[in-house]
Amino acid sequence: MKNIPIKQALMLCLVALFAFSANAQYTETFESQTPFQSAFSSLGQSFTLTNNFTIFSSRAGFGYQHSNRFIDNSNAVGTNQTNAIKTTNAAKFVVKNLELYVSADGGNNPSSDGSLIITGKLGGVTQFTINKTSGFSTSFVPDNGFGAIDFTTEGGVDNSNTTIDEIDFQLQGNFNYIGIDNFTWAPQFLLPVSLFSYTAIAQSDGSVKLNWKTSYENNTSHFIINKSIDGKNFEQAGTVAACNNPVATTYQFIDANPSQGANYYRLDEVDKDGLVKQLGIQEIFLYNRFNATTLYPNPVTNGSFTLTTQLPATAQNMYRITDISGKVVQRGTITSSHQTINVSSLLRGNYIIQLSNGEVIKWIKN
Questions:
Q1: What value does the mean pLDDT take over residues 279-308?
Q2: Of 66, 119, 176, 295, which residue is the least packed, with the fewest Cβ within 10 Å?
Q3: What are the Cα distances from residue 115, in Å, to 50, 52, 67, 93, 104?
């Protein structure tokens, strides 16, 4: 494929005013979870509670800020227990923070008479360990005996972005009870980017502007724009650095010298590990200018019609036919100023022919 002249990308990292993200963190309060079960579902992800962890439920408001449901080991309290929260399908996630209640008297009163080892694991391999020996709540005021565990700062190390599929809680010393509420986590998707939209738009100056928006980015390095005139053989036209934002972000790329006729633009994402993912292909036709175009007969009765145009001297001239739903049903190249186009394979109905200058003519086949 010949080299394609291209203008360097124009890129805008425009963060949307709304902070919606496909992998935004989510706080599971357990209020809608099934009581006394050793599993729960959050944002469509299933989690298993191991050992003596279950969903505790009451109407007495024993949870964080007097909520009614939370995780605890009241099923069988005991010292030196290890209980865990893990994804049922080994799906990866990160934990941001949670509310913790520990006690040495079976849960009746919050205390600091012990310690707690928190371990994050991935595939059974330890990713981080926090040995919490202080900072436990000893009063029911203000949060019903629960205290915050912030994985950004707990233990002096930021583990809030460490990928795991299991988190263990091991009671030490005299602690024999543990309760967990407001479990704040974020899923870690296989793809480091979620594409919200991708479009190619012809500009009045003859260029093509590519626009794409990501819902979120995580570990994304850059984007590659690949170009083709046949939809099969692509070569790199340019790159755009990723903003790597956790919220919706908009990008642009300008092709100042598109080809006449078909242009295919494939958008690839490259993560920081060097892995490449194809995000999508946009097709756009750039058309020469015709003059005094006519189509006859209309309606078409004998399976073909004649398209009369004043062709430009050079470059490729094309047409495509769509049905009323917009589906492309036929396409071809215009090689004559009086060209017969066979449409015998098309069913009766209303159609549109779009010429390679964007001109549109409606016609009917009887």
A1: 81
A2: 66
A3: 20, 18, 25, 25, 10
Q: What residues make up the domain containing 300?
A: 294-365
Alpha carbon distances (Å) from 332 to 235, 290, 291, 305, 326: 24, 16, 19, 14, 17
CB atoms within 10 A of CB 3: 6
Please give the structure tokens belonging to residue 350.
């209303």
Average pLDDT, the chain: 85
Handedness of CA 108, 172, 41, 181 (dihedral sign): positive
Among 145, 168, 187, give the residue marking a domain's end. Answer: 187
Q: What is the rounded distance in angstroms from the CA atom of residue 46 to the CA atom of residue 127?
A: 21
pTM of the entire predicted model: 0.50
DSSP letters, 165-222, are SEEEEEEEET--EEEEEEEEEEE--SSSEEEEEEEEEE-TTS-EEEEEEEEEESSEEE
Under the phi-then-psi rule, with left for phi > 0, alpha for psi from -120 to 50, and beta for the rest, what region is 5?
A: beta
42 and 173 share one domain = yes
CA distance 288 to 263: 14
Q: Which residue is it, tokens 């944002």?
A: 43
d(CA 128, CA 167) in angstroms, rounded, equals 10
Q: 44 with 173, same domain?
A: yes
Centre a 10 Å sphere on the Cβ of residue 196 and count the other Cβ atoms it contains: 16
How far is C-alpha 285 from the geometric centre of its chain's CA atoms? 29
pLDDT digits (tens, 9 = 90+) for 147-203: 999 999 999 999 999 999 999 999 999 999 999 999 999 887 544 567 788 898 888
What are the CA-CA distances from residue 48 to residues 73, 91, 353 (Å)?
14, 12, 58
Spatial distance between the Cα atoms of 53 and 196, rounded to a whole number of angstroms: 38
